[in-house]
Fold this protein.
Amino acid sequence: MQAFLLAAALANPAPATEAKTILKAIDNICGDTWCEGDFSYRFNKVILNPTNKSTRVLFTMSINDAIEIDANTSIVKQKFDVSCTVTGYSTFSEIMTSNDSLNWDFYTGLGDCIQKLEGRLSKVNRAE
């Protein structure tokens, strides 16, 4: 338990301006990649962990299947609060190639994780 507490203490949310830039870059690329599928995404937080040389991205995935209440209202059936940890990146300059572009390897690592989550959550949705 002590090791977990120490590791958690050394992981820090990215500074606000850096986090905002990283989250915006993820959100911008999302429209051309992950966000065109069966899920909607809301990226919430970036946690940098220099000790483990990793970055954790916390976000919400919503299944796009909706229950329509009326012409103007629908309810999404399920939302999942999830996270992806991408190893090898723990600073803003490692994650971003410029102020608006993600490092390609960070992007593909995050994409691989999101793809695995989509597969697992699709199975959960079908099981219900």
About this structure: Confidence is low (pLDDT under 50) at residues 1-10. The longest helix spans residues 104-127.
